[in-house]
């Protein structure tokens, strides 16, 4: 109930100590002011009124607008700590009509990647501080000093860190948290963590569908993501099938709820899978008689299989003797397919495409990102028929001699050149032989950016979008609001 007396009103009473005259006497002026003098006064009053009116009209533009531009910008920082390196993303955004507005271009978005990844510091956790400090300094250079304390910073580690023992993960994260606590940014210890592979897939899915304008729309018109990283591979898409709860994520954005299949295949990223295959071949060679030669079909002929091309388990320059590089795409494809199918006979679900992991039937359009993109661009494949073209491109590459490949691609790092025979066969084994994409399937295309604005397909953008929006999604089985 409103009070009868407005607390902001103050009554003013006359001063009773001052006497008032009982009558007033008016004296008639002796002469009237001249007309020019009256015009001068009138002109001055009009001028003042005009000036005040102009200031009143322009004030919101000259002053309020300027303050809006400076003070209403928000900043957020996400560090993607991947297996091969860590990338810092700096976002600038603002609110309009109560909703966040994003622009991933120009001064509103910046990123920097440094190698190696955090997992490489497993034996010396303290050294991780150098890399993280450099990333923090880059971010601080993009955020005004006055906004640092209000701007959050998060570090999310992925498959490289997931491969480490939990106690080693925590040792590295403790170092990271110490750096972030002293960064000047807004930070809480729980904001530096190792995220699950399925959540990484969800974030990538959000990025793609935001870029394509389908986020918040019909679930059956969304785009799925197939990502081939260094240590893991993710498959994420909306499925109308009954998905087992361990593979199901629920995301609500706007007024739409999405039932999403998301799974990360740890150890089946491109680098991890290649190492696994080579280690298996080396063990076979080591356990074979001296006169038996085991061939590596995924390495170009002429490479001596030293530690620089594969692993640090052996002395530099040492020839294995019973293991030789053969460079055969067809045999490499067979070897990679066998690796992807390990454990398939133990599949407890109605069908498993890779190993013993449930995968529903493919639905809708898909974007193939990360190493799918890099390998396709290296071979200069056509975006429309890239899967069909991958086979002849891989066959030509695998059968070439190592010395000739180095001469043909003098500016490409040797570690990448050594991997393209394997990756071309691995991509076909995963997408076509295992997941079931037809070679001429127009539903899947490789990409590193999407949408009319060429938004980068980085999962960190999806994490940022969910954090700053009112979206909710089930995270590790619990429904929680993604707010900063």
Short description:
This protein has 484 residues and is α/β, with parallel strands linked by helices.
Characterization of this structure:
This protein folds into 2 domains: 69-194, ATPase, nucleotide binding domain (Nucleotidyltransferase, domain 5, 2-Layer Sandwich), CATH 3.30.420.40; 197-452, Exopolyphosphatase. Domain 2 (Nucleotidyltransferase, domain 5, 2-Layer Sandwich). Helix content is 35%, strand content 20%. The chain has helices at 35-71, 128-140, 159-162, 166-181, 197-211, 270-286, 329-340, 371-378, 386-398, 402-408, 414-417, 420-434, 459-468, and strands at residues 74-81, 86-96, 99-101, 109-114, 152-157, 192-194, 223-228, 232-238, 248-253, 256-266, 294-296, 323-325, 352-354, 357-358, 365-370, 444-446, 449-450, 455-456, 472-475, 478-481. Helix 8 (371-378) packs across helix 12 (420-434). The longest helix is centred in the N-terminal third of the chain and has 37 residues, at 35-71. One of its GO terms (molecular function) is ATP binding. Its EC number is 3.6.1.5. It is an enzyme of class 3 (hydrolase).
């Amino acid at each position: 109930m409103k009070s009868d007396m407005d607390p902001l009103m103050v009554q003013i009473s006359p001063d009773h100590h001052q006497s008032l005259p009982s009558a007033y006497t008016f004296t008639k002026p002796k002469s009237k002011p001249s007309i020019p003098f009256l015009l001068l006064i009138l002109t001055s009053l009009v001028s003042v009124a005009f000036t005040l009116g102009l200031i009143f009209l322009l004030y919101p533009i000259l002053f309020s607008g300027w303050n809006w531009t400076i003070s209403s910008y928000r900043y957020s920082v996400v560090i993607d700590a991947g297996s091969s390196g860590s990338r810092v993303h700096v976002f600038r955004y603002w609110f309009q009509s109560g909703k966040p507005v994003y622009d991933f271009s120009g001064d509103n978005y910046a990123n920097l990647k440094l190698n190696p990844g955090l997992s490489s510091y497993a034996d010396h956790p303290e050294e991780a501080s150098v890399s993280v400090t450099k990333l923090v300094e880059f971010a601080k250079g993009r955020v005004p000093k006055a906004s640092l304390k209000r701007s959050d910073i998060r570090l999310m580690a992925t498959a490289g860190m997931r491969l480490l023992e939990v106690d080693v993960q925590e040792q590295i994260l403790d170092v990271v948290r110490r750096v972030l606590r002293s960064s000047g940014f807004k930070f809480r210890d729980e904001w530096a963590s190792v995220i699950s592979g399925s959540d990484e897939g969800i974030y990538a899915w959000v990025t793609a569908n935001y870029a394509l304008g389908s986020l918040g729309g019909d679930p059956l018109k969304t785009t799925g993501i197939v990502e081939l990283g260094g240590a893991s591979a993710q498959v994420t898409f909306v499925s109308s099938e009954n998905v087992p709860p361990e593979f199901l994520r629920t995301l609500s954005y706007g007024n739409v709820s999405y039932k999403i299949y998301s799974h990360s295949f740890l150890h089946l990223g491109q680098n991890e899978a290649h190492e696994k295959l080579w280690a298996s071949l080396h063990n076979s060679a080591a356990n074979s008689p001296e006169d038996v030669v085991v061939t590596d079909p995924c390495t170009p002929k002429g490479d001596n299989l030293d530690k620089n091309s594969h692993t640090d388990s052996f002395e530099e320059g040492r020839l294995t003797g019973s293991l030789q590089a053969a460079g055969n795409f067809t045999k490499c494809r067979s070897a990679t397919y066998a690796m992807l199918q390990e454990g398939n006979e133990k599949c407890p679900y109605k069908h498993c495409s890779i190993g013993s992991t449930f995968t529903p039937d493919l639905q809708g359009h898909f974007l193939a990102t990360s190493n799918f993109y890099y390998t396709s661009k290296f071979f200069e494949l056509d975006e429309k028929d890239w899967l069909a073209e991958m086979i002849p491109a891989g066959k030509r590459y695998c059968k070439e001699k190592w010395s000739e490949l180095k001469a043909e691609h003098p500016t490409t790092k040797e570690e990448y050149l050594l991997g393209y025979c394997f990756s071309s066969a691995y991509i076909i084994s995963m997408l076509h032989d295992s997941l079931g994409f037809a070679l001429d399937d127009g539903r899947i295309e490789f990409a590193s950016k999407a949408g009319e604005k060429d938004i980068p397909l980085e999962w960190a953008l999806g994490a940022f979008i969910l954090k700053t929006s009112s979206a909710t999604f089930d995270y590790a089985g619990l429904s929680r609001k993604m707010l900063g």
